[in-house]
Amino acid sequence: MGVVSRSVRDSAAMLDAMSGATPGDPYGAPHQERPFLSEVGAPPGRLRIAFTARPLYDHPIHADCLAALHDAATLCASLGHAVEEAAPDFDRAAMADAWATIVAANEAADLRQLPALVGRPPAPDDLEPWTWAAMRLGETKTGADVLIALRTMHWESRRAARLFERHDVLLTPTLGKPPVRVGELATNVDDAQVFLDRLTAFIPYTPLANCTGEPSMSVPLSWNAAGLPVGVMFTARYGAEATLFRLAGQLEEARPWSGRRPPIWG
Question: Could you read off the pLDDT of 106-159 as tens digits, one per residue?
C-alpha cells in the first residue's frame, strides 16, 4: 500500500520510508538493490508493455477510461517501448468470488475481535451498513470456504503472472468510470451484494493487484472534457517496483501533471 501524491519522487520517498520487514513478519517483499528514490529519473530501458481494457469484473467501462488507456499506450510507444494488446489469462469469475469471500470473512473476523477492545459486541448502529452487511456475509463462510478461496486466489494469481514471462508491464485503466461525486459510493446500503456491485463497477481493475500481490501505480496522464483526471494503471511483475518508478519518472517528464488542477478545486 502506498500513498496518493502529486509527484513520483514523493511516492518513491514514502515507499522508502514505509518499506522493509520486521522480525516475525509472515511475508516480506523482495529486497531492493537501492532506494526507490534513486530509481526516479533512471532510464527504464525499452519495456515490453501489454495493454488491455478487459477488467477483472465484467462491468461496462466508461469511454473516458478507454480513451485514457489508448492514449497512454500511444504515449508509451512514442517513448520507445514495445506496446501490444494482451491480457493475463485466468478465471476472472473464480478470482472475483475468492476475493469477495476473503474480504467478507476478514470483516467477520475483525468484528468478532472487537468486543475485546471496546467491551461489548458491536451493534448495527455502531457501523456503516456496508460493514455490518459484509460482516453478516462473512459469518456465513466456513473455514473450508476461506481456505478454498485462498487456494483459488493463489492458483489464479499464478496463471495471471504468466503474462510477465512475455511482458514487463501491464497497462489498464485505473477505474471503470471518471471521478465520481462525493456520496455516489455511499455505504448506507443493507445488502452487501448491492454495494459490492456498485463498488466493483467503479474499481473493476484494481482488485487484481490486491489478489496477486504485484505492484501497481496509477498515473493521471489524461484529463476528460470536464477537466477531471482519468488515471491509467501500470502493473509489474512481483517485486519489480523499481521498474514502475523508472517508467513513472519517464511519463511524468513526458507529460507533467503536478501543476494541473480540476475546476472543482477553484
Answer: 999 998 998 998 899 888 888 888 888 888 889 999 999 999 999 999 999 999
Q: Report CA dihedral (153, 155, 157, 159) to the nearest 10 degrees.
A: -150
Cα angle value 108/98/145 (rounded, 5°): 60
Does this model's pTM top 0.70? My answer is yes
Contact 64, 224 (CB under 8 A): yes
Q: Which helix (H) or strand (E) holds 148?
A: helix 143-161
Domain range summary for the chain, segments of one domain joined by +? 35-90+147-256
Architecture of domain 35-90+147-256: Alpha-Beta Complex (3.90)
Grid coordinates representing 78 are 512514442
Q: What is the per-residue pLDDT across 32-82, written as a single tens digit (0 to 9) for each? A: 889 999 999 999 999 999 999 999 998 999 999 999 999 999 999 999 999
Q: How far apart are CA 212 and CA 206, in angstroms?
A: 11
Q: Scan for cell 493487484, then name that residue.
A: 209
